[in-house]
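Quick one: co-fold with glyoxylic acid.
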Amino acid sequence: MRPKIYITRKLPDQIVTRLAEVCEVKMWEKEEEPVPREILEKEIVDIDGLYCLLTENIDKPLLDLGTKLKVVSNMAVGYNNIDVAAATEKGIMVTNTPGVLTETTADLTFALLMATARRVVEASDYLRAGDWKTWSPMQLTGKDIHGASLGIFGLGRIGEALAKRARGFDMKVYYHNRTRKPEAEAQLGIEFAEKDQLLRESDFVCVLMPFTPETKNYIGAEELSLMKKSAILINTARGGIVDEEALYHALKNGDIWAAGIDVFEEEPVRTDHPLLSLQNVVALPHIGSASQKTRLKMAALAAENLVQGLLGETPRHLVNR
Ligand code: NAP
Ligand code: GLV
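Sure, here it is.
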């Protein structure tokens, strides 16, 4: 008997073909529309493995329905969309896709930092709107990136890759984690800082930690008030780590200078979201890992994790070991 799996979004053909070598595959065939909850609730009843995206809420009530479920494979490194404790209690393996997206996400984080500092989106809109009448001395001036200080909350895989990029721009890099990383400090020439110190001293603050109960609203009104008025906040980790309402007020009142945001508390973000009304916000639709090569690698790794788990092996990236 081949294990039965359900895939929650249309995947590239080569990934489905690989999965079909081992499994009986059923897939939600739409690319731009998530699977409705009631369909997922029906499908989960009869499957051994679930291949899902970060858009699916794999909570306890859903897992309760999956009485035959052995593996939940998430095509993302972040797995805050899955109730891992409930899965573990049921003996269900949960897997993710770390590593393959590290460099691509660090690229996008740096791109967002640069776009925000140099007002790239605003300047492009200005030109397209026909507002460019002449060159003038202080027109559309932004902040320098080279020589500035960068504070990283969450110096993990992506955080370290970001610190490497910052070195090329002669930036002074601070980081804050729960555990210090002396090796990374020596290798990258970076400095550990307590949370408040990092907020006070950084020209750019980048958030790159996972979304957990501990990191919910990790950056709120108090933290924003400690930042320089000239500082820029970048969040490419998860919405919910930064308190969006507090961020809106800080940006509107000039308590910080600008923000670059790839992730929102509710995705897709509503177009009438207050943050989108601000010109000093560069907002992106959760595209941190979105290069063609990387998305294929993530899709393949999620497939490999799922197959390994279903064949009774330990998946390469098991979250609940
Ligand atoms: P990682 O290697 O696990 O790094 C996470 C870092 O955060 C670790 O160094 C960890 O260090 C730190 N951290 C965790 N909890 C913390 C806390 N309460 N306070 C301070 N630091 C804390 O993960 P990664 O691969 O770099 O990915 C990071 C996150 O980026 C993912 O979880 C995901 O949500 C997000 N992401 C987003 C995109 C996108 O498309 N925008 C793409 C990829 C990833 P300690 O444990 O020592 O504290
Ligand atoms: C994307 O956000 C990921 O966690 O992989």
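If it helps, Residues 292-310 form the longest helix (19 residues).
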